Fold each of these.
Amino acid sequence: MTPSGSLKGCDDMNETPRANRLHIAVFGRRNAGKSSLINAITGQEVALVSKHPGTTTDPVYKAMELLPLGPVVFIDTAGLDDTGDLGRLRVKKTLAVMDKTDLALMVFSPENSSFDLEKEWYEKLRERKIPIIGVVNKVDIKDTGIDKYSKDFDFPFVKVSAKEGTNIWKLKEMISQYAPSNFELPALIGDILKPKSQVILVTPQDIQAPKNRLILPQVQTIRDLLDHNCMALVAKDTELEDLLQSLKWLPDLVITDSQIFHRVNEIVPENVPLTSFSIIMSRYKGELGTFIKGAHAIDELKPGDRVLIAEACTHHPLENDIGRQKLPALLEKKAGGKLEIDVKAGADFPEDLTPYRLILHCGSCMLNRKQMLSRIIRAIQQDVPITNYGMAFAHAAGILKRATSMFGQESGSPLTTGGRHDKVSEGL
């Protein structure tokens, strides 16, 4: 607990992943007091403060626990009025932050009399349907009425002094009040399962699996199942048949690594629902229907077509890398010849998607829902089909319908299967 009594750091691997946190971005002119404001909210010196304009260059991220909201990420950005060639690059990076912003704090200084620049950025935020709180800072220097600001902007305002701590508590209350409730779905998979459901997780431990650890989607799925009073059974694909034989009843669901869809599909009885970690993530972070439609676009690829493979994280490619070897080989087999394939990693996602016939995205466990939806919307606006790794593997194996049918119309109704009514010996 920090001295403020309301915030604590979240820096170790046992804490909520950054991608699952509410992202609160702070925008404003140079020296409006953005960094000081974050320090005041968090009760920590997490952002560099200086009298000299332009101290904050690249966006700075700080994961915190903000009560009563819970896990959040504050993003400190460069000044909207930054100048010069380097300044324009900083502003461009600030603009990119909007794609992952769930709630924006627009910081005003009473020292500024013109709001033309703020109005431009307000329109950009409004286009993205991002809720905004206006923060009039430095009231310890000059206290001005809210009317001066509210007549030009239709979002709520609060007057604060980051230096003196004035009204910071009120700002925290407003953050809780105006934070979007739907920034992420309530569950990965547990919301469509009945309590006490038995779920098998197939987790191959190949060369790409992290040493002594499971990958993040696997860990998150296990926790989600436990939170919904379900039973998680974990095995490698080489032990899957043995696990099924050891059960008295068929499982209610099997979740597998997408790369072994074909093998697992042959082992798991047809009357047992089957999906993958990547498909679960596409529901949780993106838009399932769009990805299903995009998977069918694989059939339309022709030799010479250009395809974008997008990865949310950066990593050192290993032998048989999924994004650089396995999926390109799968797509080229479907197309009947060589494709022009671009691989982009991390935040490197093109603005212009029109050269591509298809976008193939990873499971996006390192992106928040807002950021993933921004990429999907960009693809839809430019009429470029988009799908993800799990959908592609399922489609190639001819089991896309099976891998997505348990989600129905996203009604949230419990998954009903015949698993508990069928003996394993009858299903295998």
Amino acid sequence: MGRLKIVFPVCCGMDVHRDFVIACIASTNSQGVTEYQSKRFSTYTGDLRKLAVWLKENHCFDVCMESTGKYWFPVHNILEKDFHVVVSHPKFVKAIKGKKTDKKDAMWIADLFKHDLVRGSFIPPEDIRQLRDLCRYYQKLVWNTTGEKNRAQNCLTVSNFKLDDVFSNVFGKSASAIISQLLEHPGEAFDVAPFLDKRCKASPQEVQEAIDGVFSPWQAEKLKVIRKHISNLDDLRDALQKLIFKLAEPYSRQIELLLTVPGISDPMTAIRVIAEIGADMRQFESSKHLCSWAGLTPQNNESANKKKTTRIGKAGQYLKPLLIQCAIAASNPRSKLYPEILAKYQILKKRRGAKKARVAIARRLLTAIFHILLNDTPYLPADSSAKDSAPEQRIISLSQAIALLTRKGYVISEVADISDLPLVESDPSS
């Protein structure tokens, strides 16, 4: 059995914690003998700079560390300019159980890294990381707004106001005006007609019956606080969106290209996609690698030629839901913008169900995004008509016909002389 190849003769493994970092430099000579030297540094910026100086003094420019929470960020920010830094998921550098110490953990990471046995995580450039941080915070504000709207709806339900039965959006212009009137004048009857928009489908009589409820003093005060919180969240989200647009200005070309993708109809969605995957697709080996990284491919769990599960992975906490939303929008039956997407979705839905069909469409969209950004070309829908239409006459040789029938499962007993047989045009669809 041969030895493992030493890829990094001088490298460093780091065990990163909240308050300190254990760095272990592994130096391997020409005879394959490795010497180790470890040192402890605090996570203060000054000490992290000393860590960089110590690495340079020992001619070590290849570093590997675990992605432990948020603690690796300061270390990575100090080292990324002058060093080749690999950040790995903890499951890929998990040490063997036994006498476990921080020093041994750092040594273990160094041993794995010197043989190039550590799979690095995708770390985008600094500007993309900043954009990702803001976009994820924006998404959390959206989630908070959704939570507050659900609490507001609960207040209406408890008080027996049936506004959700007559309005498609309880927080729309008409419904909001009626709720404000109910809160400002509790227990007073009023005509709802002046508050209704012309586009409201419900009649004034139906709306009048729907507001026949009673707010308790505590529910009324709670709803006032909730509505104020929603208003504040909307203002914060608008301010954050302006900041995101400003930070995303260097990627205007990529945003323009992504707006041609089915389901991506607004710049904010395009920016959020770029914030997650970056603008340079050369970071990924292929579109399949990108889809796997985004959690849109089935997990590999197979034993004795039996697949134990076909569920998708847990990766892509922010990207995957976004692409699923885009897939839902692109495969909307009421929309005729993308017939090729709708046709594919309907076929998959019959075979595998709606959920798996949406995941498949999301993967299809991400694959298209990969090639769009890689080749700098807009989205071009697949020409399905070319597949459906066949040439007027299809001619194949006898040997080709036999091979075709064999592949389809037919057993050829003998080959007769077909020179005297009439020619019959075959069905192109068969």
Amino acid sequence: MKKKYFINANIVDPKNSINENGGLIINEEGKIEAIGKKVNTNNLPSREKPIDLKGKHILPGLVDMRVFVGEPGYEYKENFRTLSEAALAGGVTSVVTMPNTNPVIDDVSIVDFLKRRGRDKSKINIFPCASLTENLEGKNMTEFGLLQSKGIIAFTDGLKTIQNTRLMTRIMNSAFDLDSLIMQHAEDYELSKNGMMNSGIIATKLGLSGIPAVAEKIIIERDLTLLETIKCRYHISQLSSSRSVQTIRERKDKVKFTSGVSINNLSLNENDIGDFRTFLKLSPPLRTEEDRLSLVQAVKDEIIDVIVSDHKPEDEESKRLTFSQAATGASGIETLLSLCLELYHNGSVKLETIVKTLTSNPAKILKINKGNLSIGNNADFCIVDIDKPWIVKKENLISKSKNTAIEGKKLQGKVTNTFVNGVELFKL
């Protein structure tokens, strides 16, 4: 590999407290040799022709902590190859995959298969999760120690919640003993049973059963109470309401935990569902504008640690049904960064804070050396034109399933290039 020189870029790397105009040098091994304002035309060999980025931004490769991939079992929705191509188009170089596959990722033999497929078919870094319970049934714990030794990075039941408090206590104790990360999707089943969207006036008008915000708050309160005595690594996958935000604000200084939010809940609210738009049937559901603003404020205040795409590909046959029958979820890995930049452009959140929630924060939670531009690290980064306008059109999306929640939306900011290990794998 030949050395690469980039100059005249705006570099944002929260991990190393870099937010300045400068350049980047990648060595022959695909690692970062130098970075920052000291890299400029005056300091480069005269024979070299650097790439002038003309003020575009260089950001660390994004780390998406919540991604559903169809492999194994649902390859017709998404596979590792299409996922990695879609991720690269969105500047994402590392993903954490959910265990909701067929078969479920709850056994060592499946982990071996998954890692092999991820290595052979994917161009990005794949970090698989295993399920908390066997077959996602919420009854018996999986073998945390054995699965972790095979490379499992965290444990979650994905779209399901551990309802049994006794079982949750056992899970937390095991996680503490083994230093495992637990990621919980917070939703009380009895309160949310048969629910399809946020409980409120709009649900009543549409004649749809609602999911109250308190269903999320109850599980969070329970788990954080357990966490007071069992101090394991615990992460709330996605917050969706102002009630939940209030809870974590109150508990943040008393209990050690982290939390995330889906970009869907930061960008959309229940009004966007309109006349039964099934592509906006999500879990957790879109809630009120007040809830959305509360979540944005929590990101701004760095109360919420991570923003995720919650990328869940579904084929058209699963979505073009009645609202009650339609599958839950939206494809979103390609549009994650652009939607986040909306918060920057409208003055809601600083750019550095946004980048932090997408790179160094998830990497820190996962204990992986990604999401930064440290010297000596693999050169995983993306180049972004943060002012470039574009319109989301499903036919232009790379993901195998086109179930985007933001069809036709005008965005500002687009990834133009993505590099993994110093190799350019995406170019607009």
